[in-house]
């Protein structure tokens, strides 16, 4: 019973999606509410504040557990490692207000689409629906499966046929109304958050609440100046944060607002078509695309006609994409599975722009609304900005642990103060305030503000280098990166390809190569026809636009595209793109070619084809171009040259990009509609035409950057959609794979029939282009060795093999990833998966790509950098406007500098708190305290300025071969703090005790004047003093005068010692502001201590001491400085010493990848070469067949 209740009480929302949540049901209970309200009043709102920080406590206190069906409050918990809670109210949607048609109260479905979740969510006969809204998305309660279901999109279970059939004629007016009420408006509304809300949210941060408490205490003690300084600083800091958040909110609001009010023509079943504002669209609506330029207000699936869309807003690539209608087929599979990963070519995404539409004979192009509002692709992007994934970085958690640790020390101080003051019989009010004063002294309230200044400075420096950042807290994480994945085309290599040559094929033999650029134009023939017509180029504003590869190929023919807007035959010409020979083209017996239909390119299929017709002729042609391996598989084998693979390898191994072309004459009747051709049927039995060879040059910055990363022991991995052989060659040329290194190709195959899944390891020799023999060599005599970081072998594989390995050989994956350098033919999904697998091995992964198909991976990585012209690409945390990979080492350098700076600031603030704590505790021993101005100089003139300027030191230009420590709570750091605190305690205690031993010392001194003649003070007899002073001063004493310079100058010493320069930051003297400030602060402290000016002494509440004593105090400080500097620089920051200590204690890194490295080093059978393994059915073991050799295949 208990188990059943738990099952009803808790379910998963968005199972297996990125934003998966656990949802718990609760019911409010009256008497609990009463108790909580009483608690709020009695605690003066403190309980309310606690509940604001911990919403789950609020729910547990006010409500009782129940099943989700009865719940009026739900508690949501994220399933990541943070487990953050949010509380939501369950609301009701009332449909009875709508004038529904007669009979809807009976058992008939409310919405015509039987599969719709709306039908299963309506409570009959009240016609009510329960719903919750989470992160802008609405969920309604589905009674049949007892869980909350997303609403605002068409069900994925629809087949192609049912979409055409159910929605092809539009919805009825009533159904539109119901859907509008249930799904909400189709708008991506980002409210500009009111300033008071932002202000409250910022001020109620636990840090600021603690700060407010501290300030109240200090103000009550008359410590006004410093309190005012902190208040002003906090106001500035809060003001800046609020201003920044408000700016972001406004920017985002403006970005999405324009698409909420677009006019669209919507068709309903009974009333025909009429104009409507886009916010009234609902999933299932049918709307027309009538040729006007249009920003799409929703996600829709095209069912009729075709159109050209600019998806730059989503992908960052402003290459026009052609969309084709969803086929009308009788298939039982859901439409997305039917179109495989290629369903996107039928979908028009929200926020993208329709540039051109092509109507059909039936009238204008038509589309059905798939998703509205925040369910759309654009809504998803906006949500990922509004609710970013929390960055799990130890620094912030450690900073919190630190503050807790300091609070514990503060509590000890509190107990100590109570004991001392009570034993002296002081009044309770004094005891309480003094005890709290010492508690707050240990915890510096500036830690959170100081941590942000470091990242703000780093962000400013990055901006100067044209690197923009939308998630500043990730800058610190960049300091930990130790593996970077690069996309190839456009990132490592030049964006455009240059046409290098074409190798025609006739009668299953390759002919002589035609080089480009050449004096003679390409002769007319099927190859020229394919190059002129097999592309998706369009003419927009008198300019040919489209995929750069298509553009280069077309330019090579010297043909021209006719601008469709100038075409004569009116509407019908919209369908057809016509190409004609230009002036420089070779003479052709045709007037031109009309491209009638396209099967567009997709990275999943790796091919595209077009159906065309020569003008004035009746026969139809189909041309195909794509990846050579794919295209040749669609050709009749007798037309493919025997030496096809060898020839292909010759070029790919030299780093050329190779595309294959093929052709077929289609035997169609006269008045056939080519748009209804089945792709599978049309693309078969083709004639192989030849290979198009394109040159893809490395960018000049690529090699030096990769060399720099390798020198810094940062791994580089190539993840590309290109051919494997080309990728390996580029990796060799770029220096990712060193000259002496071996490349092992991994080929994994799915199980076929009775044969289990297999994985083969082939040694790829460094082929010379002229050798005739195939290049898989079988000499297993050479033993491949692993030496520490650098290995002399690299694995390379394609996306298909990667997929098979993750599915059938998952236990081999970590071993392979340890040395895999090239991943080719990877789909966008596989790229994200690969980044995630690397992260599982405890790598900090950076990803650098050009933003188009790398969106997922850029988001998944610890630091994604997209190279794009836009200032901030929504796809990734970082955007570099300079389109080469120089930004990667720049970012890592800045990240390391920011990380080290953050650590330094935290260390400094901790020590400053503890130095003050020790000094104050010593003075409390005799019921005294530092004077207001004494505190003021330590707090404002020293600490505040140090915190603001310490992080200004720039990054060191050379990347060190190791990373800065990633944890605050690590031995060197903790030791550094503990030792420095010990030095402070020793020095201050010495000063405190020694001053009592001096011959001129008086316990109750009141004389502060220095007699001008001699510098020694004549001791007054205690008796006299006692009568003159009457009561003891809380500040004036020789101990105070001695401890103040000791603690103040100690703060300056610590600031200097902790501002370490090399290897991650430039030396301290390059930070001019900071260096000058330290010198000035030191000068001020010495002046106040040594100046024999009565006004200064009375203001500072000092007593005059003999000069020789002041010199002793300076000597103590000098000794402390030397000891501290020596300890920090020679011992704690000494990398070699720590390595020796680690070796001595046998300490080994716990990172997964280090463990695997150690295992593989001691494994003699790794890596397998020229072997083949099979998936073992029963056990997890994998059988390796050592005798299996690859002969010349």
TrEMBL record:
Domain of life: Eukaryota
Domain Cation-transporting P-type ATPase N-terminal per the UniProt entry, residue ranges: 164-213
One Pfam family recorded for the sequence: E1-E2_ATPase
Membrane topology of the entry: Multi-pass membrane protein
Record GO terms (molecular function): ATP binding; ATP hydrolysis activity; ATPase-coupled monoatomic cation transmembrane transporter activity; metal ion binding; P-type ion transporter activity; polyamine transmembrane transporter activity
Any one GO biological process: intracellular calcium ion homeostasis
Signal peptide extent: none
Transmembrane segments: 31-53, 226-245, 402-423, 435-458, 909-927, 933-952, 973-995, 1042-1059, 1071-1091, 1111-1132
Reactions catalysed according to its record: ATP + H2O = ADP + phosphate + H(+)
InterPro entries for this protein: ATPase_P-typ_cation-transptr_N, ATPase_P-typ_cyto_dom_N, ATPase_P-typ_P_site, ATPase_P-typ_TM_dom_sf, ATPase_P-typ_transduc_dom_A_sf, ATPase_P-type_domA, HAD-like_sf, HAD_sf
Catalytic activity, EC: 7.2.2.-
GO cellular component, one term: late endosome membrane
Keywords: ATP-binding, Magnesium, Membrane, Metal-binding, Nucleotide-binding, Translocase, Transmembrane, Transmembrane helix
Gene3D superfamilies: Calcium-transporting ATPase, cytoplasmic domain N, Calcium-transporting ATPase, cytoplasmic transduction domain A, Calcium-transporting ATPase, transmembrane domain, HAD superfamily/HAD-like
Subcellular localization(s) per the UniProt record: Membrane
Record-annotated P-type ATPase A domain positions: 261-385
Residue span, P5B-type ATPase N-terminal domain: 17-142
Residues forming coiled coils: none
UniProt cross-references to SUPFAM superfamilies, sorted A to Z: Calcium ATPase, transduction domain A (SSF81653), Calcium ATPase, transmembrane domain M (SSF81665), HAD-like (SSF56784), Metal cation-transporting ATPase, ATP-binding domain N (SSF81660)
Region annotated Disordered, chain positions: 1013-1032
Similarity comment text for this entry: Belongs to the cation transport ATPase (P-type) (TC 3.A.3) family. Type V subfamily.
Protein name: Cation-transporting ATPase
Lineage: Eukaryota, Metazoa, Chordata, Craniata, Vertebrata
């Amino acid at each position: 019973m208990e188990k059943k209740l738990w099952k009803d009480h808790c379910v998963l929302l968005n199972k297996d999606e990125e934003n998966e949540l656990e949802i718990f049901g609760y019911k409010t209970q009256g008497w609990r509410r009463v108790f909580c309200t009483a608690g709020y009043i009695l605690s003066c709102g403190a309980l309310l504040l606690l509940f604001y920080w911990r919403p789950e406590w609020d729910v547990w206190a006010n409500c009782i557990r129940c099943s989700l069906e009865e719940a009026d409050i739900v508690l949501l918990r994220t399933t990541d490692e943070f487990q953050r809670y949010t509380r939501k109210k369950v609301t009701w949607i009332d449909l009875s207000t709508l004038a529904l048609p007669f009979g809807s109260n009976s058992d008939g479905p409310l919405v015509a689409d039987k599969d719709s979740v709306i039908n299963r969510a309506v409570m009959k006969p009240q016609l009510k629906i329960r719903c919750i809204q989470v992160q802008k998305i609405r969920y309604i309660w589905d009674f049949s499966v007892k869980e909350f279901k997303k609403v605002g999109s068409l069900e994925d279970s629809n087949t192609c046929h049912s979409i055409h059939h159910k929605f092809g004629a539009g919805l009825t007016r009533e159904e539109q109304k119901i859907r509008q009420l249930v799904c909400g408006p189709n708008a991506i509304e980002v409210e500009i958050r009111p300033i008071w809300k932002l202000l409250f949210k910022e001020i109620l941060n636990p840090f600021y609440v603690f700060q407010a408490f501290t300030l109240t205490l200090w103000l009550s003690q008359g410590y006004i100046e410093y309190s005012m300084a902190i208040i002003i600083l906090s106001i500035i800091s809060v003001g800046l944060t609020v201003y920044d958040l408000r700016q972001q909110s406004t920017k985002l609001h403006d970005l999405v607002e324009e698409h909420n009010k677009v006019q669209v023509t919507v068709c309903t079943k009974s009333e025909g078509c009429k104009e409507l504002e886009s916010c009234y669209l609902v999933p299932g609506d049918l709307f027309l695309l009538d040729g006007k330029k249009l920003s799409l207000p929703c996600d829709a699936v095209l069912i009729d006609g075709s159109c050209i869309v600019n998806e730059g807003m989503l992908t960052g690539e402003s290459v026009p994409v052609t969309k084709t209608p969803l086929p009308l087929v009788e298939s039982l599979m859901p439409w997305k599975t039917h179109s495989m990963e290629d369903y996107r070519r039928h979908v028009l995404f929200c926020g993208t722009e329709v540039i051109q539409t092509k109507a059909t004979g039936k009238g204008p192009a038509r589309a059905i609304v798939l998703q509205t509002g925040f369910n759309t692709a654009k809504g998803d992007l906006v949500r990922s900005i509004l609710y970013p994934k929390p960055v799990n970085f130890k620094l912030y958690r450690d900073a919190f642990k630190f503050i807790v640790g300091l609070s514990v020390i503060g509590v000890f101080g509190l107990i100590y103060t109570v004991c001392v003051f009570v034993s002296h019989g002081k009044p309770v009010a004094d005891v309480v305030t003094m005890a709290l004063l010492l508690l707050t002294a240990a915890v510096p309230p500036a830690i959170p503000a100081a941590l942000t200044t470091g990242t703000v400075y780093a962000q400013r420096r990055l901006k100067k280098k044209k690197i923009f950042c939308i998630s500043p807290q990730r800058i610190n994480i960049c300091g930990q990166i130790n593996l970077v994945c690069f996309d190839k085309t456009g990132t490592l290599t030049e964006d455009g390809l240059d046409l290098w040559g074409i190798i025609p094929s006739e009668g299953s033999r390759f002919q002589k190569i035609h080089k480009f650029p050449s004096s003679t134009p390409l002769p007319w023939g099927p190859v020229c026809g394919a190059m002129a017509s097999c592309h998706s180029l369009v003419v927009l504003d008198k300019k040919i636009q489209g995929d750069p590869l298509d553009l280069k190929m077309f330019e090579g023919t010297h043909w021209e595209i006719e601008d469709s807007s100038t075409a004569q035959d009116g509407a019908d010409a919209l369908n057809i793109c016509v190409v004609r020979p230009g002036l420089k083209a070779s003479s052709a017996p045709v007037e031109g070619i009309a491209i009638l239909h396209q099967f567009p390119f997709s990275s999943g299929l790796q091919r595209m084809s077009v159906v065309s017709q020569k003008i004035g002729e009746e026969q139809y042609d189909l041309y195909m171009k794509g990846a050579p391996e794919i295209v040749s598989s669609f050709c009749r084998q007798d037309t493919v040259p025997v030496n096809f693979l060898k020839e292909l390898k010759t070029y790919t191994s030299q780093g050329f990009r190779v595309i294959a072309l093929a052709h077929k004459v289609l035997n169609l009747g006269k008045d056939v509609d080519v748009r209804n051709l089945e792709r599978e049927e049309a693309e078969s039995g083709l004639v192989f035409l030849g290979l198009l060879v394109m040159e893809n040059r490395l960018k000049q910055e690529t090699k030096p950057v990769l060399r720099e990363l390798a020198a810094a022991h940062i791994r580089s991995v190539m993840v590309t959609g290109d051919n494997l052989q080309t990728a390996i060659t580029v990796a060799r040329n770029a220096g990712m794979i060193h000259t002496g290194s071996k490349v092992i190709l991994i080929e994994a195959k799915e199980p076929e029939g009775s044969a289990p899944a297999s994985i083969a390891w082939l040694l790829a020799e460094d082929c010379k282009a002229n050798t005739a023999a195939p290049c898989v060599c079988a000499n297993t005599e050479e033993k491949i060795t692993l030496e520490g970081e650098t290995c002399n072998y690299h694995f390379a594989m394609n996306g298909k093999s990667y997929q098979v390995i993750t599915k059938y050989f998952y236990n081999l994956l970590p071993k392979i990833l340890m040395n895999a350098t090239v991943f080719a033919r990877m789909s966008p999904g596989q790229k994200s998966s690969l980044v995630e697998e690397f992260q599982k091995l405890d790598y900090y992964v950076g990803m650098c790509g050009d933003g188009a198909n790398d969106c997922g991976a850029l988001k998944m990585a610890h630091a994604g950098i997209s190279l794009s012209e836009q200032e901030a690409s929504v796809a990734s945390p970082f955007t570099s406007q300079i389109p080469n990979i120089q930004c990667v080492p720049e970012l890592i350098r800045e990240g390391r500098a920011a990380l080290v700076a953050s650590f330094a600031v935290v260390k400094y603030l901790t020590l400053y708190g503890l130095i003050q704590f020790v000094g104050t505790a010593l003075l409390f021993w005799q019921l005294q305290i530092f004077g207001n101005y004494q505190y003021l100089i330590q707090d404002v003139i020293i600490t505040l300025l140090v915190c603001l300027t310490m992080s200004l030191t720039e990054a060191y230009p050379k990347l060190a071969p190791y990373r800065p420590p990633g944890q605050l709570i690590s031995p060197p750091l903790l030791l550094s703090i503990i030792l420095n605190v010990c030095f402070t305690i020793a020095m201050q205690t010495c000063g405190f005790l020694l001053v009592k031993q001096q011959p001129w010392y008086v316990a109750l001194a009141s004389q502060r004047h220095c007699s001008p003649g001699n510098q020694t003070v004549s001791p007054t007899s205690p008796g006299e003093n006692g009568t003159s002073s009457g009561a003891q001063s809380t500040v004036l004493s020789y101990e105070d005068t001695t401890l103040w310079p000791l603690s103040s100058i100690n703060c300056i010493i610590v600031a200097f010692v902790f501002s370490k320069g090399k290897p991650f930051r430039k030396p301290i003297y390059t930070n001019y502001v900071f260096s000058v400030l330290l010198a000035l602060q030191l000068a001020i402290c010495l002046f106040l201590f040594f100046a024999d000016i009565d006004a200064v002494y009375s203001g500072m509440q000092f007593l005059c001491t003999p000069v020789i004593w002041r010199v002793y105090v300076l000597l103590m400080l000098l000794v402390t400085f030397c000891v501290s500097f020596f300890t920090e620089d020679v011992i704690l920051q000494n990398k070699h010493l720590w390595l020796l200590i680690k070796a001595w204690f046998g300490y080994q890194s716990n990172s997964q990848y280090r463990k695997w490295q150690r295992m593989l080093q001691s494994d003699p059978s790794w890596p397998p070469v020229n072997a083949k393994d099979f998936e073992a059915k029963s056990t997890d073991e994998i059988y390796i067949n050592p005798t299996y050799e690859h002969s010349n295949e």
